[in-house]
Design goal:
mainly alpha, 2 helices, elongated, transmembrane helix, CTP synthetase, transmembrane, membrane
């Protein structure tokens, strides 16, 4: 299940980071700090999400 979670992590992290960055840019925060913060939040959130999805699939 760890390999499945790792593969899913690459896809889910890119998706969540992209959604966060787009949300920050749409909200009007175009500087570096909010963009990096949104990417970091997306990366951190993607860890438990990928584990939950891997458990649901496995």
């Amino acid at each position: 299940m760890l390999r499945l979670a790792a593969v899913l992590f690459t896809l889910i992290s890119a998706t969540l980071m992209g959604v966060g960055i787009v949300a920050v840019l749409v909200a009007g925060y175009g500087t570096t700090t909010p963009i990096l913060a949104a990417a970091a939040v997306g990366l951190v959130v993607s860890v438990p999400v990928s584990v939950m999805v891997a458990r649901a699939i496995y």
